[in-house]
Amino acid sequence: MDRTIVITGGGAGIGRATALHFHGLGWRVAVLDVDRDALEEMSDILPAERCLTVACDVGRESQVKRAFARISGWLGDMPLTCLVNNAGIADPYCGPLEKLELDDWQRWIDASMTAAFLCTREALPLLRRAEGACVVNISSTRSLMSEPETFAYAAAKGGLDALTHALAVSLGPAVRVNSILPGWIETGSWQKAAERREPRQSAADRQQHPAGRVGRPEDVAGAIEWLVGAGFVTGQRIVVDGGMTVRMIYVE
Questions:
Q1: What is the dihedral of CA 180, 183, 186, 191, to 10 degrees?
Q2: Is the peptide bond before 173 cis (omega within 30 degrees of 0)?
Q3: Residue 195's pLDDT is what?
Q4: Residue 48 burial by CB count (10 A; 0-12/13-18/19+): exposed, middle or buried?
Q5: Rounded Cα gap, residues 194 and 248, in angstroms
Q6: Torsion of CA 62, 68, 70, 75, to 10 degrees
């Protein structure tokens, strides 16, 4: 039976790499993104018979409902095997706390945590049709450690990790739910054409990682594939950071 994956924020970066990775495995792929230009590029890359692209702000309930109604129609009686809640605001920096407006705080929360709640809720009837269905939430190592002035981003990702284990307990055994915590992932070459750039890292950048290099979106896509097949793993946080968060760094 054909397997299908839905990827939010699938027009660029980790989402784009994941869409192409699973398409290469023979899966049907549905890509949600707020960026219509990025979606158009994905439509040009992937064959229409095995790919659906939907413009959607996944932090807005009405748009998520419409998007999943369209996905349901596209699937027909087929199940949804995997939902990847990848969408979020990429830039973690929000400035000094005393200048952070509530509306801006809410944008970070909605883009990651609220979006994952909305998409998982709407996807659930489709996921329950499948055997071994799963949800993978893309969190961040900033849910474990912080840099200055990243309050809203860290809170959104930390909340997403908590939502992950709450969903795993509530939706199992029919649906497994895990989160992946990427570290430094270089996405420059995985952007839409107008924003694409070649990655440049110094030796010091690479040396921060015991694995010897900065991460690639393909690393996260591979971890998602592993979680799809890891039938006894649920409610977990999988760190994909080349070992960066376990290396002690001394101030000179």
A1: 40
A2: yes
A3: 67
A4: exposed
A5: 38
A6: -170
Q: Is the dihedral of CA 25, 28, 33, 38 positive or negative?
A: positive
pLDDT tens for 136-180 read 999 999 999 998 999 999 999 999 999 999 999 999 999 999 999
Whether residue 93 lies in the annotated active site: no
Helices and strands, number each (H, E), in the chain: 8, 7
- Show the CA angle centred on residue 14, arms to residues 81 and 72, nearest 5°: 30
> What is the distance between the alpha carbons of residues 153 and 143, in angstroms, rounded to a whole number?
8
Residue 195 region by backbone torsions, left for phi larger than 0, else alpha for psi between -120 and 50, else beta? alpha
Nearest CA among 184, 247, 244, 195 for reference residue 219: 184
Domains of the chain: 4-246 (3.40.50.720)
Assessment of whether the complete model's pTM goes beyond 0.90: yes
Choosing from 68, 108, 117, 153, which is the catalytic residue?
Answer: 153
Give the pLDDT of residue 251. Answer: 59
